Amino acid sequence: MTVSTTLPDQKKVGMVSLGCPKALVDSERILTRLRADGYAMSPDYAGADVVLVNTCGFLDSAKEESLAAIGEAIAENGRVIVTGCMGEEADAIRAAHPQVLAVTGAHQYEQVVEAVHEHAPPSQGPFIDLIPQPDVKLTPRHYSYLKISEGCNHSCAFCIIPDLRGKLASRRVDAVLREAEKLVAAGTKELLVISQDTSAYGVDTRHEERDWKGHPVRAHMTDLARELGQLRTSEGVPPWVRLHYVYPYPHVDAVIPLMAEGLLTPYLDIPFQHASPKVLKAMRRPANEAKVLERLKGWREICPEIAVRSSFVVGFPGETEEDFAYLLEWLEQAQLDRVGAFRFEPVEGAAANALPDPVPEEVKEERYARVMELTERISAEKLQAKIGKTLPVIIDDVGEADEDGDIGATGRSQADAPEIDGAVYLRNVPETLASGDIVQVQVEDADAHDLFGAIG
Ligand code: SF4
Hints:
Elements: E1 12-17, H1 21-36, E2 40-41, E3 50-55, H2 60-76, E4 80-84, H3 90-96, E5 102-103, H4 109-119, E6 143-147, E7 149-150, H5 161-165, E8 169-170, H6 173-185, E9 190-194, E10 209-212, E11 215-218, H7 221-228, E12 240-243, H8 256-260, E13 267-269, H9 277-283, H10 292-302, E14 307-314, H11 321-334, E15 338-343, H12 361-384, E16 390-401, E17 407-413, E18 424-426, E19 438-446, E20 451-455
Helix pairs in contact: 1-4, 11-12
The chain binds iron/sulfur cluster (SF4).
């Protein structure tokens, strides 16, 4: 028997989710709440009674993208509610799009849900509220973002997130672990731990202890990582657990042995942003200390397979050719596995805008090209060294058979986070292979970002 999940007069909500994984988690929470209130989800504009646009307001380019997405939703549907980071700039949104029904800011879950209730009142079906529903997920079933805190206590000169999202507010550790356990029971094979500053988890609650399965656990990155490593998927193995947005504070050293023990994926996403002490100081970056290269070396001694990904900003105000040369030399020594680079862009309201000595656009471009050239070379060399090795790979997507009957698949090694890192392309996979399977792959070839191979 087929049961329709949409009742005839059930109101439908469309969602356009822009921005970072943290915003995606917000979209999931809003949709989960709306579904509990009796709404159905609409996969397209035409079928929606109201469309939510979850915006990103970090960079000017992201704001433009958000305004364009709002315009498209208005043109296609007409009934649009705006939420998310750019929601803090309601005047700019209303000036561009006076037709929007309501504007709410980041994390204003109650307000956005209220706005939906006001503009598309839910049908009071007799059964809807009684049907237990799993949480809405916008990522594929086999990986999930696990948000452990909101906000940030730092004041990096180029960033307005503390203004948009407030001070650090950590979730209770038992609540985070319960959510992770539920996700893994529902088929998640990979947990991506996110926040603005994962290494600061629990600082605001003085690392409050909670009971978890009969023993106390602190709200602390190391304790959380250890407990996440105790979870088991339906195959009886620990899920992959990746830590994102970690700052190189000394206590980060404590999670590296967990990677060596196989409890934590050997991967750290550390947004260094620069290497020159002078630029880091001007940026007001946390954990800005000189010994990072030594610590990286120490981490690799404990866990040789650790992959470190980072991002860097070039052309920050006051960055001299000497500072930039320092960064290139540092990158050469650090041998990071994955690097994203950005040209500095002023963000409205950020302290960096008042700094003297802006770097001319053409110099930014030139530095950006040089940093990309260097980091691509390092990445290519590191990937070349993997040829001939056998690595675990999580499958994201299985293709259709070609004219010879060969089926290809795309996956990721432990060194690749979804969306931001490279991929592993597999040839000739069995037709029984499915997304979320973890297989051993023999690496046959590599380019600057991706690996190629076959199940070994
Ligand atoms: S650590 Fe710095 S860049 Fe990151 S959210 Fe906080 S203020 Fe912004």
